[in-house]
Each structure stands twice: as C-alpha cells, then as structure tokens.
Amino acid sequence: MSGASQQQTTPSSAQYYSRSEMVHYTVFENRSEKMSEDIYENPIQFEDNQPYKIQTIDIDDKIYANQSSIKPAKNNGFTAQNSVWKRRFTAAVFLGMLAVLLGGILGLLLNHKNQMTSCNTLAKEKKQLQNSYNNLTNERDQLQTSYNSLTKEREQQQTSYNSLTTDREQIRTRCNSLTKERDQLQTRYNSLTKERDQLQTRYNSLTKERDQLQTRYNTLNKECPDGWLLLGRRCYYVSTEEKTWAESRQYCKNRGADLVSINSPAEQKFVNWMCGYKEYIWIGLTDSGIKGNWKWVDGTPLTAAYWASGEPDNEKDEDCAYFYSTSSDSGAWWDYTCSYEYRWICEK
Length: 348
Ligand SMILES: [Ca+2]
Ligand SMILES: [Ca+2]
What we know:
The protein has helices spanning 2-8, 37-41, 59-67, 77-220, 245-254, 265-275, and strands at residues 229-231, 234-238, 258-259, 280-286, 295-296, 320-325, 331-336, 343-347.
C-alpha cells in the first residue's frame, strides 16, 4: 500500500483507475516538475479551474482533439517540416509517457493483485490465527478451569491431609499415653505379683506357724485318760498289778500306748517318781532281737542310759529291763528275765 502511495505522490502524477478504458488522473498544481512542456502546451482545462480536484477526462478525446489543432506551417518548408517532426516527437514522447504510465498502472494492478492475494492470504492466515487463538483461548479457559478445579481439589486434599495429620498426632499421643499407662500397669502388676508372692510365702509361714500353734495348743490342752499322768506332751500310766514283760507291753498296746521309754533326765526322774521308792517296774527296753543291742520298743533312740552298776549282765538269759527306784529322785536299770512279773508303766 505504501508503494501505491508513493506512486500517487510523484511529481505531476495522477491517480489512475482501471475500471474501464477511461483513464482518470489528478493533476496537481505543481507545474514546476520536469515534464514535457509540449504536453503542457495544451493543458487540460478543468471546467472549474480548481487544482487538487480529481477530474474525469476522456483522454482519447483530448488527445485526438489536440491532434486536429496541429497544422503544418505556412511560412516555409523547413519550418513546417520541423514543426511536424516536433509534433511527432512530442506525440512519441507523449505516447512513451503514456506507455510508461500504462506500464506503471499495470505494475500497480499486478502489485495490487499481489497485495490482494497477499491480503487474502493474510486474511486467511488471520482467520486461521484467530481460530487458533480462539482454540487456544478455549483451551486456556479449559486449562484454567481444570487448574481451578485441581487447585480446589488440592486444597481439599491439603485440608484432608491436615485433618489426617492431626488425627495421627492425636492417635500417636494416645498410643504413647496408653503405652506409658501399660508400662505403669505392668510395673504395678509386677509389684503386686511380688507382693502376692511375699504374701503367699507369709501365708504359708503363718499357716505352718498356725498348725504348729494348733498342735502345741492341742498338746497343751491334751487330756490324758483317767488314771494317766501328763508330762510334757506325753501321757503315762503306772499299773498297780504285776505282769510279765510281754503281758505288760500288751496291756499298753491295747490302750494305744507302749511300755515307757526314758529319753531324758527329766523323764528318768518322772518315771522314778511314778515308780515309788524301792519299787520295780517294767520299762520298754529289750535286747530280744540282737543280744546286747538294747532298743526302746517305741522306736526312740537310746540316748541316755541309767544302767545299774554292772548291768546289763544277762545273768539268767535276761532280755528285758526293769527300773528300780533307789531313792526319791534317782533310779537305775537292770536286765532281767522277761517272764518275771513286775508292775509296769505305759507311755503314749
Ligand atoms: Ca519316753
Ligand atoms: Ca541283769
């Protein structure tokens, strides 16, 4: 377009239009431009004589109208001939100029066509670009919508994550508290278990002690049968009749007892007291199993012996022992024939 403007502003240039065979041009007032003076010798007269106004002129009429005014000179042949050549030259120049103008017009038309084609191409490209722009705009809007949706979803996810994080922290705190409570309960359980074991041991000890006290109580409150005497935890019976050693023992066994065994000095003194001064009684000592191996019949060990001097001597196959009270507080043992009859003392 700028090229066309330049063409229009050239000196004495005219703006031409090719709508028909007619050529329209605009003549500017600047007559100082270098143009053929011959052309301007027959200037195109504008009806209103106003410059810078577009006039529509029939070129052909003007040209050929002027042609009729060209007349041969009447002065002389040379001058006339010179005038003819001058006019021909002027016409040729004019035709050349016209050809140049037509070429320019054709160039302008071609340029215009090219520009129109380019313009159409640009319009098409513009339309395509507009479509692409619209598509991109739509796509951008969709992406913006998706972005907004994703942003909202992300915020919701973030909120959910924060909530879950808070719940997790609370659960962790609760777990730690429960773990601490469990450890405390475990410690308390261990302490209680230890205390229980100590109490169980104490209970067992108290139970044993209670049983011992109960036995002691029963012993202390033991009541011996009538005619029997109590010494410590034992009951004693001293007979008034006399029997053999075996009969005497059987008497005791029939009453849940056996012939007395003397196991301590106190019992020796007690038996002496029960026997009576200068009296004899059978005691539960015999070596009927192995000669010389004296044993108590109730199974208690022979720890203290109060044999009379020289006894046991087994003088007459003597397997049984009797007690003889030598004084009010002392006595001694003798071995003697078991078939002899003495009083006896039972113990249970
Ligand atoms: Ca005894
Ligand atoms: Ca003897």
